[in-house]
Amino acid sequence: MTATRIDGKAFAATVRGKVAKGVAALNTAHGITPGLAVVLVGEDPASQVYVRNKGLQTVEAGMASFEHKLDAETPEADLLALVAKLNADPAVHGILVQLPLPKHIDEAKVLSAIDPAKDVDGFHVLNVGLLGTGQKAMVPCTPLGCLMMLRDHLGDLSGLNAVVVGRSNIVGKPMAQLLLGDSCTVTIAHSRTKELAEVCRRADILVAAVGRPEMIPGDWIKPGATVIDVGINRIPAPEKGEGKTRLVGDVAYDSAVQVAGAITPVPGGVGPMTIACLLANTLTACCRANGLPEPEGLTA
Ligand code: GUN
């Protein structure tokens, strides 16, 4: 049996459509336009691509996009001053400081300076704590996107065995909290986990977020499991020509697709959901800031 391919690209387009509808309704009924500010420090090429795509999709959804590009030598104090300005700006409902930041800047300090109500990345410790205690939080975009795809594919997740491979603050830990919130039995595994293959084989839901190309082979997967591959790894592809590369996930897709019940491909799986959820979070933050009901189906 071949697994169902979960089409993240199509699902993300649906989410963006719902966001655009919510934005239009907010504008018509209340004259409010949600605004997202994105701050990029330095010239990291991958970050520049992300930021450009974020800006385009924000405008496409009918929201206001504010981009702040600072040079790589910007002092930490200047970045903190910009964050304070954005915190105080009523036209800005969401603030995202693109990571990684240059080495001379204390990332934790900057993330803590963002108003938690505008923290559309969900990285502020207050939001981490709210999520961990089952309260209303801003939730990190990538795990939120994974949760949406899982609910869409499986419906009720309660009682399922979920294994998250990876313990990062951006994906692994919040993903585990979200699955726990949906009443899964959750295991967080990582590179030091003993008998990792055995642990993975118990998973009805397997989320791979380790950043190691094709680390999880098909024979680590329980037959019929739902596999969410968060990895985006660029590897050499000599078959495409000299110096060429291709993207692969943390799961060995060709073998996994023979065993799993459903699986997200790379590219075209989780990736497109991240920006879609950023837009969803911006709309949610705007609704909360104005004391209005939250958009349905776009929150955890
Ligand atoms: N860099 C790579 N992914 C992300 C993300 O989701 N948020 C931020 N702020 N930086 C990133």
UniProtKB/TrEMBL annotation:
<keyword id="KW-0521">NADP</keyword>
<dbReference type="Pfam" id="PF00763">
    <property type="entry name" value="THF_DHG_CYH"/>
</dbReference>
<dbReference type="InterPro" id="IPR020867">
    <property type="entry name" value="THF_DH/CycHdrlase_CS"/>
</dbReference>
<keyword id="KW-0028">Amino-acid biosynthesis</keyword>
<keyword id="KW-0554">One-carbon metabolism</keyword>
<dbReference type="InterPro" id="IPR020631">
    <property type="entry name" value="THF_DH/CycHdrlase_NAD-bd_dom"/>
</dbReference>
<dbReference type="GO" id="GO:0035999">
    <property type="term" value="P:tetrahydrofolate interconversion"/>
</dbReference>
<dbReference type="InterPro" id="IPR046346">
    <property type="entry name" value="Aminoacid_DH-like_N_sf"/>
</dbReference>
<dbReference type="Pfam" id="PF02882">
    <property type="entry name" value="THF_DHG_CYH_C"/>
</dbReference>
<keyword id="KW-0658">Purine biosynthesis</keyword>
<keyword id="KW-0378">Hydrolase</keyword>
<feature type="binding site">
    <location>
        <begin position="166"/>
        <end position="168"/>
    </location>
    <ligand>
        <name>NADP(+)</name>
    </ligand>
</feature>
<dbReference type="InterPro" id="IPR036291">
    <property type="entry name" value="NAD(P)-bd_dom_sf"/>
</dbReference>
<dbReference type="GO" id="GO:0006164">
    <property type="term" value="P:purine nucleotide biosynthetic process"/>
</dbReference>
<protein>
    <recommendedName>
        <fullName>Bifunctional protein FolD</fullName>
        <ecNumber>1.5.1.5</ecNumber>
        <ecNumber>3.5.4.9</ecNumber>
    </recommendedName>
</protein>
<keyword id="KW-0486">Methionine biosynthesis</keyword>
<feature type="domain" description="Tetrahydrofolate dehydrogenase/cyclohydrolase NAD(P)-binding">
    <location>
        <begin position="140"/>
        <end position="288"/>
    </location>
</feature>
<feature type="binding site">
    <location>
        <position position="232"/>
    </location>
    <ligand>
        <name>NADP(+)</name>
    </ligand>
</feature>
<dbReference type="InterPro" id="IPR020630">
    <property type="entry name" value="THF_DH/CycHdrlase_cat_dom"/>
</dbReference>
<dbReference type="GO" id="GO:0004488">
    <property type="term" value="F:methylenetetrahydrofolate dehydrogenase (NADP+) activity"/>
</dbReference>
<comment type="similarity">
    <text>Belongs to the tetrahydrofolate dehydrogenase/cyclohydrolase family.</text>
</comment>
<keyword id="KW-0511">Multifunctional enzyme</keyword>
<keyword id="KW-0368">Histidine biosynthesis</keyword>
<dbReference type="GO" id="GO:0005829">
    <property type="term" value="C:cytosol"/>
</dbReference>
<comment type="function">
    <text>Catalyzes the oxidation of 5,10-methylenetetrahydrofolate to 5,10-methenyltetrahydrofolate and then the hydrolysis of 5,10-methenyltetrahydrofolate to 10-formyltetrahydrofolate.</text>
</comment>
<dbReference type="GO" id="GO:0004477">
    <property type="term" value="F:methenyltetrahydrofolate cyclohydrolase activity"/>
</dbReference>
<dbReference type="InterPro" id="IPR000672">
    <property type="entry name" value="THF_DH/CycHdrlase"/>
</dbReference>
<comment type="subunit">
    <text>Homodimer.</text>
</comment>
<comment type="pathway">
    <text>One-carbon metabolism; tetrahydrofolate interconversion.</text>
</comment>
<keyword id="KW-0560">Oxidoreductase</keyword>
<dbReference type="GO" id="GO:0009086">
    <property type="term" value="P:methionine biosynthetic process"/>
</dbReference>
<feature type="domain" description="Tetrahydrofolate dehydrogenase/cyclohydrolase catalytic">
    <location>
        <begin position="6"/>
        <end position="121"/>
    </location>
</feature>
<dbReference type="GO" id="GO:0000105">
    <property type="term" value="P:L-histidine biosynthetic process"/>
</dbReference>
